[in-house]
Amino acid sequence: MRPQSVVFSVVLVAIGMVFTQTGASFAKGLFPAVGPAGATALRLTLAAIVLVGIFRPWRHRLDRRQWRFVLAYGAVMGAMNLFFYAAIQTIPLGVAVALEFTGPLAVALAGSRKPLDFAWIILAVAGLALLLPLGQSSGEIGLPGVLLALATGACWAGYIIFGQRAGIGGGPHITALGVSIAAVIALPFGIATAGTAMLDPAILPVALAVALLSSAIPYALDMVALPHIPSRLFGILMSGQPALGALSGFLILNEVLNPWQLGGIIAIIVASLGATVTIARNTPAPVA
After folding, report:
1. Could you tell me which residues come within 8 angstroms of residue 76 by beta carbon, excluding any fewer than 6 positions away?
2. Is 222 helix (H, G, I), strand (E, B) or coil?
3. Which of 63, 126, 248, 274 counts the most CB atoms within 10 A of its CB?
């Protein structure tokens, strides 16, 4: 694995993270009309249509083993989106993203061997603890939202693992297949809760923007990056998501941050950058 490809993959993942959190903030505006499940179904269905039209996955043949990973990749993606949108209906975006970080953190921890790697993970956990408004009586954080966000984290771990395996020897057409499978999973929930409201022309432009920002673009970037980046590095890079989620929530949704949450964001950013440099530097040179 060449260092240049690792750095390029890091840039792609970072861009996808920004788009994801911006799209999540806009998606919250769809909840009054179609609810979280309806917003999820719209997002994934529109993203699938865009990705299938661009990358034409039917022109690529997959073997049985890769199909298994693609199906698993799409399944966890669909569940991840359903859980996440249900979570941010009741808890702030930055907090939900911080809680779902437990998934990538588990992936990072599973592969850790060097003391410095553990130092970055400990710093990220400390930042996570500061982001959670524990002990406050504001009523913003409820148990159902917390459990949904943690379930999102478990799916996120599967997304990293299955996405990397499905993407080996593949390309963006794998993303088109995965998002299509995720849309098939989410659509029945959206129809059951929102019905024909999902077809309202007034919300389709916003839904399309959310689909591009939150699904089509970042998932395509992830699929290009995942085969060329260690899963540990990808997992720890994702620690920047709570910071981006909190920032996006503040700028777009007016979700105000307290000093403890700001401290958590800074700790997670430092952990993410430190882990990126450390793991990239320790990446073995390719065998000739």
Report:
1. 155, 158, 159, 162
2. helix
3. 248
Contacts of 43 (CB under 8 A, 6+ apart): 23, 27, 81, 207, 210, 211, 214, 215
Q: How confident is the model at residue 9 (pLDDT cuts 50, 70, 90)?
A: confident
> Encoding tokens for residue 199?
């077809």
Measure the CA–CA gap between 147 and 229, rounded to whole angstroms: 30
Separation CA 99–CA 137 (nearest Å): 19
Query: Furthest-apart CA pair in the chain: how many Å?
Result: 59
Identify which of 3, 24, 9 has the alpha carbon closest to the alpha carbon of residue 226: 9
3-state secondary structure of 283: coil
Instruction: Report yes or no: 118 and 112 within 8 Å, Cβ to Cβ.
Output: yes
Contact between 176 and 57 under an 8 Å Cβ cutoff? The reply is: yes
Q: Using only the alpha carbons of the chain, give its radius of gyration.
A: 18
Instruction: State how far the Cα of 244 lies from the Cα of 14, in Å rounded to an integer.
Output: 10
- CA dihedral (162, 217, 234, 250) positive or negative: negative
Tabulate helix, strand, coil % of the chain (nearest 5).
85, 0, 15
Cα–Cα distance between 116 and 184 in angstroms, integer? 42
Dist. CA 243–CA 124, nearest whole Å: 11
**Bigger pLDDT: 110 or 266?**
266
Distance CA 96, CA 56 (A): 34
Structure-block tokens of residue 263: 């401290």
Predicted confidence band of residue 79 (pLDDT cuts 50, 70, 90): very high
Q: Is the dihedral of CA 186, 192, 194, 197 positive or negative?
A: positive
Tokens describing residue 270: 């430092």
